Amino acid sequence: MINDMENTLEFHEPKFEDASKLAKIYALRDNSTCDSTVLDTFIWKNFYKTKIHIEENAALILMEDKEGFFAAMPYCSEEKLGEYFEKLKQYFNDVLKTPLRILLADEEALNALNLFDSSNFTITEESDLKDYLYNAENLRTLAGKKFQKKRNLVNKFKKEYEGRWEYKTLCCSDAYFLEEFMKKWVKQRLSEGVDSEETLLIEKDGVINILMNCDKITFRVGGIFIDDALEAFTIGSYNTREKMVVVSIEKGNSEIPGIYQVINQQFLLNSYEDAEVVNREDDMGLEGLRHAKESYNPIGFARKYKVLQK
Question: CATH topology of 2-128 equal to that of 131-281?
């Protein structure tokens, strides 16, 4: 808690009852990053030990990693950004007794605050964590020469599994299918030694948790079933200000050629027909993931930065 004469900041664990209000606050200013929707906040809240301070038209997000506390850029209108940035800095300095550290800061906010020219902060681009942005219509149609390989994989999948595959829009009552899929996914990834067990289990639990609270948080889920078995699914949410779909989760059976291309296309065709932009998040600096994201011909990037108070 911090007292700055008139205002008091109090942080608490994010509750699903906060999601609707947070979503409205997140949309108060321009932001093209995946953090412009609340879905990731709730999926990863246990991983980052997330705490929130929420007001009528502003929210501050406090998290932890191995280096200590860090924050997200304040969520509020652009006009109020300077005020809440100062409150956040004061909280770090006076209460946490540490310089302000913000990770994944969006470029729009840094420009609004003139932080690139500030002598009081060090700004460093987190290049491996930039989000890939795509033209939504390109991903729906896969038209043109540059998407020929994707079309070929989709057509091959449809031919091979004709009469056996189906796309379904999933809901709360389908949580069982997703939970069973995630259990298999975790087991497979652990056998491959790709991810840490802690990260995989927290992601699995985060996905199941949002499904169990789908009446309180807005998102959509689509799945590909083959012979009535779930073989791929995607979870996304919508940034109305940017007319942008943020794809937070996409999982598929990698032993089925074309499954990722099909779920990618079908999700946009069936869930977000009016979206103009798709944010498929970052590649985490992984070469294979980078190649996969680049192969969809991004139209740009939502760049993110580390902000350190000197």
Answer: yes
- Cα torsion angle, 217, 220, 224, 225, sign: positive
Q: Which pLDDT belongs to residue 239?
A: 96
Yes or no: say if 245 and 274 are a contact pair by the CB < 8 Å rule. no
pLDDT, one tens digit per residue, over 51-78 is 999 999 999 999 999 999 999 999 999 9
Amino acid at 292: A
Sequence ranges of the domains in the chain: 2-128, 131-281
Total residue count of the chain as it appears in this document? 310
- Second CATH level (architecture) for the domain 131-281: 3-Layer(aba) Sandwich (3.40)
Distance between CA atoms of residues 25 and 146, nearest Å: 38
pLDDT in tens, 146-199: 999 999 999 999 999 999 999 999 987 888 888 889 888 888 888 877 677 888
As a whole number, the mean pLDDT across the chain is: 93
Which amino acid is residue 129, in one-letter code?
L
Q: What is the dihedral of CA 114, 117, 119, 124, to 10 degrees?
A: 90
Are the C-beta atoms of residues 131 and 293 closer than 8 Å to each other?
A: no
List alpha helices for the chain, DSSP H. 19-26, 39-43, 81-90, 107-112, 136-141, 148-160, 175-192, 197-212, 259-271, 287-294
Distance CA 299, CA 297 (A): 7
Residue 7 has a pLDDT of 55
Q: Return d(Cα 291, Cα 298) in angstroms, integer.
A: 11
**pLDDT value, residue 119:** 96
- Within 8 A by CB and 6+ apart from 123, the residues are 110, 115, 116, 305, 306, 307
What class is the 2-128 domain?
Answer: alpha beta
Strands 244-252 and 131-135: unpaired
* pLDDT tier for residue 138 given thresholds of 50, 70 and 90: very high
